[in-house]
Amino acid sequence: MSEPFVHPYIPNTAPEVRAEMLAAVGAASVEEFYADVPADLRLGRALDLPEPLVAEQDLARHVSGLLARNVPTTERLSFLGQGTYAHHVPAVVDEVIGRSEFLTAYAGEPYEDHGRFQALWQYQSLMGELLAMDVVNVPTYDGFQATGTALAMAGRMTGRRRVLVASDVLPAKLSKVRDYVRVHLDLETVPPVDGTADVAGITDRLGGDVAAVWIETPSRTGAVEHRLQAIADAAHAVGAILVVGTDPVGYGVLTPPAEQGADIVCGDIQSLGLHQWYGGAHGGFIAVHDDPRFVMEMPSRLFGLATTDVPGEVGFGDVAYDRTSFAHREEGKEWVGTAAALWGIAAGVHLALMGPQGMRDLGEVLLARTAYAQRALGAIPGIRLTDGAVHLREFAIDVAGAGLTASGVVDALRAEGIEPGVPAGEHELVVCVTELTSQRDIDRLAAAVTGLVAASAAEAAATLDTVATPEEHRA
Amino acid sequence: MIGLIVNPVAGIGGPAGLAGSDGADVQRRAGERGARSRAAGRAAAALAVVAASRPDEHVVTAAGPMGEDAVRAAGLRPIVVWHQRSPTSPTDTTDAARALADVGVELVLFAGGDGTARDVAAGLPSSAVALGIPAGVKMYSPAFAVGPSAAGALAAAWLDERGLPTAEREVLDVDEEQLRRARVEPRLFGTLRVPYRAGRTQARKAATPADEQAAVRLAARGAATRLRPGIRYLLGPGGTMAEVARELGVEKTPLGVDVVLDGRVVVAGASEQELLAEVAHGPARAVVSIIGGQGFLLGRGNQQLSARVVEAIGDDPVMVVAPEQKLIDLGGRPLLVDTGDAGVDARLAGFAHVVTGPSTTSIYPVHAPENEGAVHAP
Amino acid sequence: MSLPIAPKPAHRRFHQARWDEPVIFELSTPGERGVLVTAVEPGVRDTVGDVVATLPEGLARRTPPALPEMGQMRVLKHYLRLSQENLGADLNVDVGQGTCTMKYAPKVNEQLISTPKLSAMHPLQDPADAQGALEIIWRTERMLAEISGMEEVSLHTQGGSAAIWANIAMIRAYHEANGEGAQRREVITTIFSHPSNAAAAKAAGYDVITLHPDADGYPDLAALKRALSPRTAAIMVTNPEDTGIYNPAIREWVDAAHAVGALASYDQANANGILGITRARDAGFDVCHFNVHKTFGTPHGSGGPGTGANGVSAALAPFLPGPRVVRDGDRYRVEEGGPRSIGAIGPFHGVVPNIVRAYAWIMALGAEGLRAVAETAVLNNNYLMKRILEIPGASAPYATGRRRIEQVRYSWQELFEETGISSEEIGIRASDFGMHYWTSHHPYVVPQPFTLEPTESYSKAELDEYADVLAEVAREARETPEVVRTAPHNQTVHHTHHDDLDDPERWAITWRAYRRKYPDAVGA
């Protein structure tokens, strides 16, 4: 170092202070502190990293320049879902979670971090109202983890291995859950019928060795399960646990699974007040009834109300803290770590702003726009809805009848500034609408697809003339 | 309402080099050596903590040196419900404890050592709550607070919060004749309900009794799942081993060594000779836990598992079972074996795989103090 | 005639905000609205009719959720008050959460991510529309590969423990791919490694062997050798451990593991003091992870979201979780995991806003800056240790007289034995001065523990202030113990009663449960 390296993030790089501190501890140099690091493990050179941008303005220009290369969904017409959803985020939500006090806190006690405890306890409570359940955890990483944990809980509680997967599940989610539980649980698929679970098929496969029946509603394609109570009754008859994976966004209008026999309800909170963040803003919830057999199997933190020395003062603390792996290491229920608390605070603020009427209005607009989009696309010749179930937000279309492929539709419409959906097979396209997708937007998609279908038909006609195979032409 | 009992002769054997203070003879000899009990002073120090926040508190106690003096020294108001005989005897403490319980004292503080704890436990109903102020020579029983101030703090919290959670703690004592001959074999003499303070933060976790119990159960379950058919298991004494027996669904003699084969007790409370006979019948293994705070595996409290028995078992003769916290509580000191046979001790020294749960073990060093040099075998 | 202002007293006269804010449900006023939802267009309604009325039997919710009904500003005000009742790292000298590396999360990074160019990106958009996000992910992974010495790095996981899970999942897949999955059933860890290593290994189906340190607190190589066998799948260790002690024989540990065919997994949660000093791969490790939110300066978000980085050797690279960002010339694309990948741990590319923050943080510092981070964190730690050990009743068990790396696990045992005041009570009292520390250290090896990790972010004056506060509380513990015992006094809430929190009959995890269990306490 030719001249002293003083960095604004590191106050004690100031030379005089540094010298004073070294003198105070009686060290000639910082090298002394590394006495235990063997010489042959020392790097012995500078890290090979890009030249730093130490001036804030240079850093800002560089990073903003990179981000400027993104073209976000606000500049495209997006019908993308499949795990991450574009919903409106009220300004107050961002204001609250942007506060330094919440943003930069971590794991203080219920005294100096009272606000965090209250905000997260309120999140638990607000979710509890939406889900009609008495116990909700402080968020875990995401809906994938929440579901893996919910099934692992069912395995621990029943001591059984079989899990019946009775809904269409997002492939990435299924992959995660399978790898997470495979030591303890065997997942078996019971293929859905017309979009929703095959109750008879489930009943046939149920037995005293089944730990859980896992239902996803809405499913991968947005189908809403409408026979939960029958499935719950069948599962409970053999002592199995009904685990329902869900997106809570619809429960302003839809009956929550807990009122139809679900034992564990889990899923993701990204739809409740979180931006898309390129898929980087997920939080997982696990909800159970207030039954210690379930509660004591939950690995996440749970905050609870407490009194203080002052009457009327609201205090908080950790409920049954010793469930966690912090306390019992490998004997704990999985582990607890830094997960998604800030997103939980956001979801809580979101639900408080929405209120019962807001959630009802949102649910209704989602159901209505979904149904509208289904009709608009399903009416196009050659385009077929894949099932007859009620859908929330997402649905799948089959484009084979129009001589198209799903990826072909995507490629063609991207050229028009439209992301029409996510391919889920050669001919299946999953389309997503939210309250941000207006009637006009849906009409524009339908028109674009109609144009594509017409072009494909014209092309097919031309192809017949020249007796070539359609595959070659589309390639 | 809290109460106080002071054993006015507690601890006088210690400074006098007499390893305990039990028995009129020892007390007389200690007195001759000029020893004075520190129990009253330490009881007063504990109550001073209570007095700091509750200067008007009444304390139910026994007359004079058995409590009243210490209550006054702390600036609190004594309510004397029992008068001692002279000279004091063990039944004084027991009778005083009974008298305090009879008038409805909710928390009995007692200043003394293990012998005092034994006597207090004998006088209290099982529902009563007590807490030791450490002032004796021997304090093997986990019924004592870490110091007088800590005891006082707990008592103050008891009053502030109108009660605290309690846990059942063992009352242990050693035969002082043996102690004076440097052989420590604590025996279980009963239990006391002891208050503890759940924390006030997310850190409410400094090993609560519920944790300890769960950890013992896990370790026991770990041992139970590792037992194989056709092998005779020689279950040693102690609480963890009692839990192992519970897991197996068999009766256990609390202080003896019991032989279990295929889920049945073959011999209960076996002598060394009986153990040797059992081992001669076929493959066998000793299952032991950690005895007392010193970390002994063999040679204290389970002498039936002698060098000859260990030798007869053959390879890998001992399964050690203990909750992780018991290892942690050794504070870095090694586990110890002292079978009386240097060769056997040397074989056992090195590291033990300690079973802490069904799928967990810990590696922990084992030393043979009578046989230093064999320590830390590679 | 009132100036000049008198000098400040020795200790800050702090008081946390105390709004005495009710639970939000108690603020509900029927009919108020916080935010309105866009209406269903008449054209849509005409086409689809009443979608709620036509739902299948039982699917329409009968009773609306009992969410509060509040005007927008009331919601804002309530939560802003709660935020003031929270002590974020931006406000206090946050050295008391040892192992958590509470460093400065630069404000410019918050500004940089606050753009629809990031927040309105959908992960399944055309990669051509996501080149900025993909490039930042790729570049950050490459920089972390250089920092760790590993061949490949993935930023897919959402936190440190999720990354630990990915480590053990990769190790499991590796042994299975080699036909040794059934044979290698054991994972070895140390008692001062982060407990998530043991927990994740257990969740992955392994038997866990725990090693205790030697008498001086150093990891015990002889114990490791006793534990290793052909059954060993991996060693999973933290270094430096949570005591701030660096294992000088770490290379021998890794070699011993390799000698029996086991893998070596490095928990680098405590990497802040060794950036640019020594690297995981150079010690021979096969896999490692960073807690990006700790070491690389992203805010901790009241407990997440965090970000994990998994680094692997070339042999383990095929097992990394997916999807991966790949560079083709000057373009970036997304590749799903290959046949040996452990697949997704969570959705998509991980916590993208944190990845961008971490990228900006590293770019603001560079190689020289990272080294200054490490050296200053270690200097701060050893300076603070000197100040703490000057307080009567405080001690630093193990490695007596030696330096520590970036944190120290201290003990108040002497003070506790003398005064009956516990570490927890001292921590709570410290909050009356606007400072705090946590005591949730498990396993409970060091009695009456507190772990301080000053990082590089705090000035000498701040470290002095922190030590002065602890010294003052220790003095109070001796001289006016009831002041400590009845703390907090200057906080949002008072001494809290936690006795109901372990009783299933009495605990109240939601307002809904509270209303049911205590009907008389809640106005109908």
UniProtKB/TrEMBL annotation, chain A:
- Under which EC number(s) is this enzyme classified? 1.4.4.2
| InterPro entries noted in UniProt | GcvPA, GDC-P_N, PyrdxlP-dep_Trfase, PyrdxlP-dep_Trfase_major, PyrdxlP-dep_Trfase_small
Where does the Glycine cleavage system P-protein N-terminal domain start and stop, copy by copy?
9-446
Q: Which superkingdom, per the lineage?
A: Bacteria
Q: Please give the Pfam families that the UniProt record associates with this protein.
A: GDC-P
Keyword Oxidoreductase included in the entry's annotation = yes
Q: Which keywords does this Swiss-Prot/TrEMBL entry list?
A: Oxidoreductase
Q: Where does the record place a coiled coil? A: none
GO MF annotations, alphabetized: glycine dehydrogenase (decarboxylating) activity
SUPFAM superfamilies from the entry?
PLP-dependent transferases (SSF53383)
The entry's protein name is Aminomethyl-transferring glycine dehydrogenase subunit GcvPA
From TrEMBL, chain B:
Q: Which GO terms describe its biological process?
A: NADP+ biosynthetic process
The keyword Kinase is annotated on this UniProt entry: yes
- Say which domain of life the source belongs to: Bacteria
**UniProt entry keywords in alphabetical sequence:** Kinase, Transferase
InterPro entries the UniProt entry points to: AcoX-like, ATP-NAD_kinase_N, NAD/diacylglycerol_kinase_sf, NADK, Put_ATP-NAD_kin
Gene Ontology molecular function, alphabetical: ATP binding; NAD binding; NAD+ kinase activity
Q: Does the keyword Nuclease apply?
A: no
Q: Which PANTHER family match?
A: ACETOIN CATABOLISM PROTEIN X, ATP-NAD KINASE-RELATED
The entry's protein name is: ATP-NAD kinase
UniProtKB/TrEMBL annotation, chain C:
- Alphabetical GO biological process terms: glycine decarboxylation via glycine cleavage system
Residue intervals of the Aminotransferase class V domain? 139-303
Q: Which reaction does it catalyse?
A: N(6)-[(R)-lipoyl]-L-lysyl-[glycine-cleavage complex H protein] + glycine + H(+) = N(6)-[(R)-S(8)-aminomethyldihydrolipoyl]-L-lysyl-[glycine-cleavage complex H protein] + CO2
User: What keywords were assigned to this record?
Assistant: Aminotransferase, Oxidoreductase, Pyridoxal phosphate, Transferase
Any Gene Ontology CC annotation: cytosol
Gene3D superfamilies noted in UniProt: 6.20.440.10, Aspartate Aminotransferase, domain 1, Type I PLP-dependent aspartate aminotransferase-like (Major domain)
Q: Which domain of life is it from?
A: Bacteria
Residues annotated as domain Glycine dehydrogenase C-terminal? 374-485
> InterPro entries from the entry?
Aminotrans_V_dom (IPR000192), GDC-P_C (IPR049316), GDC_P (IPR020581), PyrdxlP-dep_Trfase (IPR015424), PyrdxlP-dep_Trfase_major (IPR015421), PyrdxlP-dep_Trfase_small (IPR015422)
Q: Which GO terms describe its molecular function?
A: glycine binding; glycine dehydrogenase (decarboxylating) activity; pyridoxal phosphate binding; transaminase activity
Enzyme Commission designation:
1.4.4.2
Q: Tell me, in a sentence or two, what this protein's role is.
A: The glycine cleavage system catalyzes the degradation of glycine. The P protein binds the alpha-amino group of glycine through its pyridoxal phosphate cofactor; CO(2) is released and the remaining methylamine moiety is then transferred to the lipoamide cofactor of the H protein.
Q: Which PANTHER family match?
A: GLYCINE DEHYDROGENASE (DECARBOXYLATING), MITOCHONDRIAL, GLYCINE DEHYDROGENASE, DECARBOXYLATING
Instruction: Output this protein's name.
Output: glycine dehydrogenase (aminomethyl-transferring)
Query: What is the protein's species of origin?
Result: Agromyces luteolus
